[in-house]
Design goal:
Order of helices and strands: HEHEHEHEHHEHEHEHEH
CATH superfamily of the largest domain: Nitrogenase molybdenum iron protein domain
Structural class: alpha/beta
Largest sheet: 4 strands, parallel
Distance between the termini: 34 Å
CATH architecture of the largest domain: 3-Layer(aba) Sandwich
CATH class of the largest domain: Alpha Beta
Number of domains: 2
Bound molecules: zinc ion
Number of helices: 10
Strand content: 5-15%
Radius of gyration: 20 Å
Amino acid sequence: MKLLSWISATLVLALTSCDRGADPSTDGTFRVVATTSMIADVARQIAGPDAEVTALMGEGVDPHLYQPLRGDIAQLQAADLILYNGVLLEGKMTGTIERFAKGGTRTLAVAEMPGLIDEAEGKHDPHVWMDVKLWAQAAGRICDALCDADPENAAAYRQRHEAYAAELAELDDRVRQAIATIPEDRRVLVTAHDAFGYFSRAYGIEVRGIQGISTESEAGLKDLEALIQVLVERRIPAVFVESSIPRKSVEALVEGARAKGHEVKIGGVLFSDSMGRAGSYEGTYIGMIDHNVTSLTQALGGSVSPGGLFGKLPTTHDTAP
Ligand SMILES: [Zn+2]
């Protein structure tokens, strides 16, 4: 019932958007609205000063559970282009965006492209930004969408995209080099939920999440017990917290392993479904990946400079939520 009344409320809001009397998009500014901060960062790199990019979900926000706020609807109404992840990442928001698409707003589901990882029941894993090469393809799609929607600035968009694509290629190389320094039997990443499937496939590190692909369902005790068994048997030295998810399930793992005589430490806080503080290096896509790779490489016994892959990470970084 609650859901139904919410749907009808947003429908009314969407319908009133057809009244274009006070349309803020007529002031000449090209407006891009992105759902996640990862998408917004890429869009900003390409847009430069030629378009205004807004992110709806900020630091520490879980996109699986995110409900659009009234202010978000106003942002979407004013958008010339809506960029969202798709692949059902925005579980509670996809319908709203699809209604805007039907109403004639340009939209792009940036992650809906070939090469996705299959999940059960015909679903795909939405966490594509964890594979830098795949995310670079998404960046290409974002560039195309910007150029189509705002052809006047297309040349500038393409130029900035080319420079950013080169940065992403360099990032991908350095991630590979860092992971390669972790002893092979320790290349196991245990985190709160299954956000790292693409990371695993791209960089050859085994991943285990306490919760499934979405955070919408709770982890069962049985799953927890099975994971503790893996930690103990393989003497895995560290597990990781995610910035957008409560840390209690990961702490339960540490305690469970300790009860069985195996000391596991929390190897750090990883950014899974949201980035770091806006304005910081970790608040960019490249900084987010750098932080994750540097933290896990250090905790699992590999070697990487304390300043990270580009010497830009603060050397005493703790991002505990
Ligand atoms: Zn997720």
